[in-house]
Structure formats: C-alpha cells, structure tokens
Amino acid sequence: MTIIEPHRAKYSYNSAVLYMLLALVALACLSIYFYNESVDIRHSISANAKDLQSLQVSNAELKSQLYATMDLSNLDAIAKSENLVKETKPGYIETTSGVLAVN
Questions:
Q1: How far apart are CA 32 and CA 80, in angstroms?
Q2: Residue ranges per structural domain of the chain
Q3: CA max distance for the chain
Q4: pLDDT tier at 9 (50, 70, 90 boundaries)?
Q5: How far is CA 65 from CA 25, 40, 55, 100, in A?
Q6: Which CA distances in Å does 73 have to 66, 78, 87, 89?
Q7: Phi, psi of 12 (to 5 degrees)
Q8: What is the predicted pLDDT for the residue at 92?
Q9: Are 74 and 68 in contact (CB under 8 A)?
Q10: Better-scored residue on pLDDT, 83 or 30
Q11: Which residues lie below 8 Å from residue 86, measured CB to CB, with a gap of 6+?
Q12: What does the alpha-carbon distance between residue 16 and residue 10 come to, in Å, rounded to a whole number?
C-alpha cells in the first residue's frame, strides 16, 4: 500500500511563518514596553528637576536668613538683648609645643 502525502512541505513553511510572526509580535510588545518605561523615566526626571529647583530656592532663602541673622549689627543687638558683655582682655588657654610633642 502506497501513502501519498502531496502537501507535506506546505505545513513546514506555515510553521516557520507562524514562528516569525510570533517573534515579530513579541518584539513589538517589547518595544512598546521599553518605550513606556522610557517615557515614565523622563516624566520622573522632569518632576525631580522641578523638586530640585524648588529645594534650591528654599535653600537660598534659608541662607539669606542665616546671613541676615549672623550680620555683625544683628549680633550686637542680640548680645545686648541677652545682656552679654564684650570682653576687653580675653584670657586664652595656651600650651607649649614641647608638651604636645612628647614621645
């Protein structure tokens, strides 16, 4: 008995085309996923840049307040309000270098 299979090669081409189409669809899905991730990263970067800019502005304001507080005229006013007296002849602690260099 003879078995005739005339369309045997046709199925192998269809499976190859099917695998190629599946690979194409998978690559398309991956490219969409990576594009969405890159857009999300760009949005987070721009949001973080805005936050950084606002923090820099608040930092500059705090530095301005600090420098205004540490101004010499303001320090004199603070010292007078706290009843502090300026020392005319301050006594400092002194050490000799020979004592510090003992082995």
A1: 69
A2: 10-83
A3: 127
A4: low
A5: 60, 38, 15, 41
A6: 13, 9, 17, 22
A7: -70, -35
A8: 79
A9: yes
A10: 30
A11: 79
A12: 10
Closest CA to 58 of 101, 66, 47: 66
Residue that the structure tokens 């005739």 belong to = 4
Of the two residues 75 and 95, the one the predictor is more confident about is: 75
pLDDT tens profile 28-78: 999 999 999 999 999 999 999 999 999 999 999 999 999 988 888 888 888
- The answer to whether residue 102 scores a pLDDT higher than 70 is no
Give the Cα separation of 17 and 61 in Å (integer).
66
Q: What is the per-residue pLDDT for 11?
A: 55
Q: How many CA atoms lie within 13 A of 20 on its CB side?
A: 6
Q: Which amino acid is at 36?
A: N
Residue 24 tokens read as: 């194409």
